[in-house]
Amino acid sequence: MRVLSRMREDVRMARAHDPASRSNAEVLLAYSGVHAVWGYRVAHALWERRFRLLARLVSQFTRFLTGVEIHPAARIGRRLFIDHGMGVVIGETAEIGDDVMLYHGVTLGGKSRHGAARGVKRHPTLGDGVTVGAGAKVVGPVTIGAWSTVGANAVVTKDAPPESLLLGIPARVRPATPDAIESARGGLGLGDG
Question: Is residue 193 part of a domain?
Answer without folding.
Answer: no
